[in-house]
Task: inverse folding
């Protein structure tokens, strides 16, 4: 009896370019000036694989890793030291014993969390100030003279809401973060995400926290040409059929063949993160040429036009167009969602 799913070769794989990942981190480090550069690896490294990503970035010299949940910190602590992992979503009272046993670093977001941290023994922590995203962090009106007394703050940080746009909010947040953080004892201050790094040296402080652009996302136009694609999906051809004009293709017949067509059905669908938004918009690449998706993307399958390609056969691997900036623009889905949407059925192959 076969009990191991790995006995079967997955018909879908993601080639993950480890060299491009490290090159992107180095590029973002350079752009971060004299400050250190961390890595946001929450949501399983934006879908790419937090352990594999972190192992590579650790070797490249990265020492500050950011996850959202404590469960993510537990998994990651098998790969890098827990003291180098920060947990952005803060602490819940009932988790404190486990948090102290793990020894990853909490990012304290509220006065109540600060209180819990102090009364449970204190120790090294990070603190999030809210300079205007109004989501997580201590707001300007919540700072009192004794709030931070006795707290061992390593990183005092804040998060930009609109760094991917040229709006006055960026400078307003910078001013407020600078004001709020002045006079609070800490070892380091951290402000910029991927897009924030590009806003210039005033935004860099002691540590930057890129996520998206590590994985090939173009957080701002200035990064195009400097950031390399990391994620390359490819899927096997499951079937090839010839159709005369007028054949309805896929769910709801949103496409009908306009002339005689050769259509390949590939093993990737929206359950794999190849969203329905790619219907009639996405493309595959064969021999450097682009060939369009026809009709709807379904859960496990997509149909593509290979009328003008001769040498494609059942079982072949076909590269799926997945350049994030372009795919985001074409589908109206954010680059973040495209990355984190990548499903678990694909074999991940690092190169
Ligand atoms: C996700 C996140 C980052 C990384 O942001 P990118 O836009 O992906 O570079 C940095 N800081 C915080 C607090 C985050 O939540």
Result:
């Amino acid at each position: 009896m076969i009990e191991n799913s790995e006995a079967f070769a997955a018909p879908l794989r993601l080639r993950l370019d480890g060299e491009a990942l490290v090159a992107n981190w180095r590029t973002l480090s350079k752009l971060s000036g004299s400050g250190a550069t961390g890595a946001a690896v929450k949501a399983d490294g934006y879908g790419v694989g937090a352990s594999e990503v972190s192992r590579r970035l650790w070797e490249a010299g990265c020492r500050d890793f950011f996850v959202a949940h404590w469960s993510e910190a537990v998994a990651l602590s098998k790969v890098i030291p827990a003291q180098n992992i920060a947990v952005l979503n803060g602490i819940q009272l009932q988790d404190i014993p486990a948090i102290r046993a793990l020894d990853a670093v909490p990012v304290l977001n509220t006065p109540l969390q600060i209180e819990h941290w102090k009364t449970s023994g204190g120790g090294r922590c990070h603190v999030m100030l809210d300079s205007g995203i109004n989501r997580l962090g201590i707001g300007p009106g919540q700072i009192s003279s004794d709030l931070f007394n006795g707290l061992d703050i390593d990183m005092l940080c804040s998060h930009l809401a609109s760094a991917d746009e040229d709006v006055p909010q960026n400078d307003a947040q910078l001013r407020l973060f600078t004001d709020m953080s002045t006079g609070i004892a800490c070892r380091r201050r951290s402000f910029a995400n991927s897009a924030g790094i590009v806003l210039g040296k005033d935004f860099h402080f002691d540590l930057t926290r890129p996520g998206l652009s590590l994985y090939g996302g173009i957080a701002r136009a200035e990064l195009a040409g400097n950031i390399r694609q990391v994620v390359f999906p490819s899927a096997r051809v499951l079937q090839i059929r010839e159709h005369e004009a007028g054949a309805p293709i896929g769910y709801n017949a949103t496409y009908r063949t306009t002339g005689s067509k050769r259509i390949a059905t590939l093993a990737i669908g929206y359950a794999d993160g190849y969203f329905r938004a790619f219907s009639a918009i996405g493309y595959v690449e064969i021999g450097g040429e682009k060939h369009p998706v026809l009709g709807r993307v379904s859960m496990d399958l997509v149909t593509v036009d290979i009328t003008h390609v001769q040498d494609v056969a059942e079982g072949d691997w076909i590269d799926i167009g997945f350049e994030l900036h372009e795919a985001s623009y074409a589908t109206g889905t954010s680059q973040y969602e495209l990355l984190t949407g990548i499903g678990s059925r694909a074999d991940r192959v690092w190169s």
About this structure: The pocket of pyridoxal-5'-phosphate is lined by residues 40, 42, 88, 159, 193-195, 209-212, 219 (CB under 6 Å). The chain has two domains: 18-216, 231-350. The CA atoms of residues 195 and 219 lie 5 Å apart.
